[in-house]
């Protein structure tokens, strides 16, 4: 069984610099160490799960990477180079996109409208170029979720798995290399959860790295390659999923002790 106080190395088939390294990240709120010297990393084509109980610090850690909250100290590296991420715009510039649990979709418009929301394509005359946006959306969906056919349907009428497809398509169309997925299967049924698993497998095949935030240990074991466990703001350990059991990880989450 492999456990470390700092990030375990990526799978043996991966080499070179990680996509992302977060080194010795500290975040305090009124003297409380929400994140206390945590280091994690992520390789291309890998799913790294960040897990822990309520108040463990996992969401705060990831908010630092997404630009939603600035760390008190520590360092972020993208492909081996130090970067400064002060806000979500900075994160997007480095190819970091967040797929929130709410998905942040506009319910009354279709897939193409959501994919280009705020970044609409326009014709030379300045009008919306609906055909170009639909064509681009069909292209992305064709590689991400070939079964998706509801291009003219408002997203409020789509299934949970299809809605995830739209949110992910929006991210990767604008060159996301690093996805943060927050509870991606929350409130989904078995068939929709299977769709999300297929989406994640496709993203991995394209070399996109995924940070997965989830309370569902079954999701973690279905989707993740490695698992970093946090407890009371500290990193308990990072384990390779294939080297541990669900009970091992639950023990780390509950007791705050690295697996034996």
Share of residues in helices: 25-40%
Radius of gyration: 19 Å
Which ranges are low-confidence, i.e. pLDDT below 50, for 5 or more consecutive residues? 1-13
> Which of globular, elongated, flat, extended, rod-shaped describes the shape?
globular
Description:
By secondary structure, this protein is α/β, with parallel strands linked by helices. The chain has one domain: P-loop containing nucleotide triphosphate hydrolases (Rossmann fold). Helices cover 32% and strands 25% of the residues. It has a seven-stranded mixed beta sheet, sandwiched between helices. It is globular and about 60 Å long.
List the helices and strands and how they pair.
Elements: E1 3-4, E2 20-29, E3 32-42, E4 47-51, H1 58-66, E5 73-78, E6 81-83, H2 88-93, E7 96-99, H3 111-115, H4 130-144, H5 160-173, E8 178-182, H6 190-205, E9 209-213, H7 217-223, E10 226-231, E11 234-240, H8 246-255
Parallel strand pairs: 4-9, 4-10, 7-8, 8-9
Antiparallel strand pairs: 1-11, 2-3, 2-5, 5-6, 10-11
């Amino acid at each position: 069984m492999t456990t470390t106080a700092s990030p375990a190395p990526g799978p043996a088939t991966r080499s070179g610099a990680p996509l992302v390294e977060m080194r010795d990240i500290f975040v305090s709120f009124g003297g409380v160490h929400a994140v206390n010297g945590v280091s994690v990393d992520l390789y291309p084509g890998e799913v790294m799960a960040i897990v822990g109980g309520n108040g463990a610090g996992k969401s705060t850690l990831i908010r630092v990477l997404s630009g939603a909250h600035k760390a008190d100290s520590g360092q972020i590296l993208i492909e081996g180079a130090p970067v400064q991420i002060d806000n979500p715009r900075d994160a997007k510039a480095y190819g970091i996109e967040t797929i929130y649990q709410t998905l942040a979709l506009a319910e009354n418009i279709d897939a193409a409208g959501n994919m280009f929301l705020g970044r609409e394509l326009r014709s030379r005359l300045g009008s919306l170029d609906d055909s170009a946006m639909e064509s681009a959306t069909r292209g992305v969906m064709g590689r991400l979720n070939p079964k998706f056919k509801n291009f003219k349907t408002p997203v409020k009428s789509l299934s949970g798995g299809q809605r995830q497809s739209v949110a992910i398509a929006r991210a990767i169309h604008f060159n996301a290399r690093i996805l943060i997925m927050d509870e991606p299967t929350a409130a989904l049924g078995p068939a929709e959860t299977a769709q999300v698993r297929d989406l994640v497998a496709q993203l991995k095949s394209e070399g996109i790295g995924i940070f997965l935030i989830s309370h569902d240990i079954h999701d973690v074991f279905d989707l993740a390659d490695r698992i970093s466990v946090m407890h009371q703001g500290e990193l308990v350990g990072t384990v390779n999923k294939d080297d541990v059991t669900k009970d091992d990880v639950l023990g780390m989450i509950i007791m705050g002790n690295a697996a034996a």
